[in-house]
Amino acid sequence: MSAPSAATTSTVSPAAGTGQRVLCAMSGGVDSSVTASLLKEQGYEVIGAMMRFWPDDKRVDTFDTCCSPDAAYEARRVAEQVGVPFYLLDYREQFQRHIVGPFLDEYRRGRTPNPCVNCNTKVKFDELVKKARMLGCRYVATGHYVKRVENAAGEVEFWRGDDPRKDQTYFLWGTPRDALPYILFPVGELEKPRVREIAEERGLLTARKPESQNICFVPGKVQDFVAEYVPQASGAIREISSGERVGDHLGTQFYTLGQKKGLDLYQSHVVRYVVHLDPDTNTVWVGDHADCLWTGLRASAANYLLDLADLPAELEVQVRYRSTPVKARVIRADSDSFELSFAEPQFAVAPGQSAVLYAGPRLLGGGLIDDHTRALPELR
C-alpha cells in the first residue's frame, strides 16, 4: 500500500464556458439554487431536475423538508429565475427499494443506519448519472460542499469542502469510482455565508431559506417513525459483565450504541451505556464506559475511490458525520471489506454507520461498520 498521489489542480467547473450540458440536481434549497446559477453563468447548458421521492400519501407535516412537494415548487421557481428548464423525475420506487426499506431493515437487525449515504450512493450518483447520460449530459452537478480535484495524472478526486462546518464528503464514500469525472460541485470551494450572499445578489428566492435538519422521509423523531413499521417487542436489558437482568425494553430498534439516557434500569444510580444489541434474543446489553470503547473496527460493503494497492497503510477514519477523524492503521483490506486499528480507542462505534477513509482532505472510500464479535455471558 502506498500513499495517494498529490493533487496539483483544483477545479470547481472543468471546461467552463464550452456549452456542455449538465444535469443539476435541485432540492429547493439555497445550495442547489446557487449551483444552478453558477453553472449557467459559467457557460454550461443547465438542465434542472428534482428527484421525486415522496409517495402520493405523504404526510403534510413533512412538506417543509428537502425533496418535498413544497421544495419542488420552490426549485421550479428558482429554475425559472435562473433561466433553465426544470424536470421532476419520478424515483419513488427506487427510493423505497434502496433507502426506506434498508433503513427499516437495519433497525430490525439492531444497527444504526445512515440513509443519506445510501441515497447518494444508490440514487443520486447512480440512478441520476444514468439519467444524465440518457439526456445527453456530460456532467451531474449537486450542491454538496465537496471539492472536485484533479491530481497530477489527471484523475478526479473528492476532497473535503473548504467550509469545515459544511463538508459533506462523509456521505459520498460510496460514489462509484467511474462516476467521479462526471460530477461537479460548484459550491465546494465556498463557505456557506458566501453561498447565501451569492443567492441574495442574484435575487434567488431560496437565499434565506433555513436548512432542513431532518431525514427527508421521517416526520418528527426517528424512533416514532421506526415504531410505525417495526413492532414493539418487550425484552431484557442485561449487564454485559454478568448477564444479570437489570431492566426491560420495548424493542432493540429503539436503542443505539453509547446511549445512556432513557434506559430506566432497576439500579438507576449506576451509569450504564448500551454496548451491544441482539435482536435474535431481543436483548439490549449495557455496561460501563470502558465496555463501549472500540480499539478498531471491521467494515463491509467497501467502496474505494482509488486503486486498492494505493490505499495507505496509515490513514484517518471518521465514524460519524460530526465526529473528528482519528488516525488508524489498515490491518486488512480487500475489495469487499477492511479492518482497522485505531491509534486511540473510540467510544460507541455504531454498527450500520459508515467508516469513511481519508488521507488528509482526500476522500479515499469507506464501508459499513460491522459489530464486534464478542463472547456474551450466560443469562441469569
Automatic annotation (TrEMBL):
InterPro entries: MnmA-like, MnmA-like_C, MnmA-like_central, MnmA-like_central_sf, Rossmann-like_a/b/a_fold. The record marks H144, Q353 as: Interaction with tRNA. It is found in: Cytoplasm. Residues 223-288 form the tRNA-specific 2-thiouridylase MnmA-like central domain. Its EC number is 2.8.1.13. It comes from the Bacteria. Disulfide bonds join C119-C216. It catalyses: S-sulfanyl-L-cysteinyl-[protein] + uridine(34) in tRNA + AH2 + ATP = 2-thiouridine(34) in tRNA + L-cysteinyl-[protein] + A + AMP + diphosphate + H(+). GO terms for molecular function: tRNA-uridine 2-sulfurtransferase activity. Residues 295-369 form the tRNA-specific 2-thiouridylase MnmA-like C-terminal domain. Residues 166-168, 320-321 are annotated as: Interaction with tRNA. It is an enzyme of class 2 (transferase). ATP binds at A25, M26, S27, G28, G29, V30, D31, S32, M51, G143. The active site is at C119, C216. Keywords: ATP-binding, Cytoplasm, Disulfide bond, Nucleotide-binding, RNA-binding, Transferase, tRNA processing, tRNA-binding. Catalyzes the 2-thiolation of uridine at the wobble position (U34) of tRNA, leading to the formation of s(2)U34. PANTHER family: MITOCHONDRIAL TRNA-SPECIFIC 2-THIOURIDYLASE 1, TRNA 5-METHYLAMINOMETHYL-2-THIOURIDYLATE -METHYLTRANSFERASE. Belongs to the MnmA/TRMU family. This is tRNA-specific 2-thiouridylase MnmA.
